[in-house]
Amino acid sequence: MSLKKIQQKMETLKFLHTLPLIAQLFEEASKEKASGLEFFEKVLTLEADAREESRVATSLKLSGLPKGMRLDNFDFLFQPSVHKDRIDSMATCEFIRRHENLLFFGPPGVGKTHLAAALGVKAIELGYSVSYYTVEELLLQMKRRPDVPLAKQRGRAYVKNALVIVDELGYQSLERSDTHLFFQFISARYMRGSTIITSNRSVREWVTIFAADEMATTAILDRLFHRAHIFNVDGKSYRLKDFDHLFEGVQRENV
Predict the structure, then answer these.
(1) What is the rounded distance in angstroms from the CA atom of residue 73 to the CA atom of residue 66?
(2) How do residues 198-218 score in pLDDT, each as one tens digit?
(3) pLDDT at 45
C-alpha cells in the first residue's frame, strides 16, 4: 500500500493528529529498523495522547473553570489548615462516582476557590463532565428558562454534568425567588451528581443568605450535607500575603 493510500485511510479513520506526521514517522521507523507492530503502536499512542490532550483542553474551556488553578500549584505550607492527604483523596474523584458533595468554608482569600477549581481540573482529566459558576452566574443561567421546571431541564450543564462547582455563596443574600431557584438546583442534583460549594459564611449564617427562610435553608442543608465532605479552611489571605508587613506596621502604630 502506498503512503498516499495510508494517508487516505487515516483521514477516513480521523487520525487527524498523526496524519501530517505519518511520512516522518515512517522514515524514523525505517531508520530505527522498527517492526511493523512497533511502528503501529507508536502511531496509535501518539494519536491517543493527542486526542486526550485535545479533549481535556476543550472540556476545560467549556467548563468555565478559572485558569491556572491546579493542585500542584496550591501552597499547602501557607495554608496548614488544609490537609493535603484529604485533598489528595478527593483528587481520585471517587466522591463524584458516589454522587457526594464537597463544601469549602472559610474567609476570603484562603484558597477555597483554588481547591474547588483544582479538583474540577482533576475531574476533567479523569473523564468527568464539569461546570463552574459563581452563584450569580448560576442564577442567571437558571433564569433563562423560567417556564421549564429545573428538574426537567436535563440537557442543561448545571443539571446533567457529573460535577458542578458553585463559588462565592454568601457574598450577598438571595431574594426569596432566587432562594427557591437554588433549592431546585440542589434538589435536581441530589443523589444524581456531585456539587462543590465554596462559602465565606458558616453554616449557622446560611439562613441569612437564603432570604431568612429557615425552611428553605434546612431543606438545602439536608440535601447538601447528606454524604458530604466538609473542609474548614482557616488562615491568612493568600492574596494579601505580600502585604503582611504593611498590616504589621499599622498594628504597631495602633498599639
Answers:
(1) 14
(2) 999 999 999 999 988 999 999
(3) 93
Domain range 71-237, CATH architecture? 3-Layer(aba) Sandwich (3.40)
d(CA 102, CA 112): 11
Per-domain residue ranges of the chain = 3-63, 71-237
For residue 66, give the DSSP letter: P
Residue ranges in the chain modelled with pLDDT below 50: 247, 250-255
Instruction: State how beta strands 163-169 and 101-105 pair.
Output: unpaired
Query: Which alpha helices (DSSP H) does the chain contain, by range?
Result: 3-12, 22-31, 36-63, 84-90, 94-97, 112-125, 135-142, 157-160, 176-189, 206-209, 214-225, 244-254
Which residue, among 202, 201, 194, 253, has the nearest Cα to 229 in the 3D structure? 194
Task: Please give the grid coordinates belonging to residue 139.
Answer: 442564577
> How far are the Cα atoms of 3, 22, 24, 29, 205 from residue 33, in angstroms, in the given order?
18, 16, 14, 6, 70
For the stretch 244-253, pLDDT in tens is: 555 455 444 4
pTM of the model: 0.86
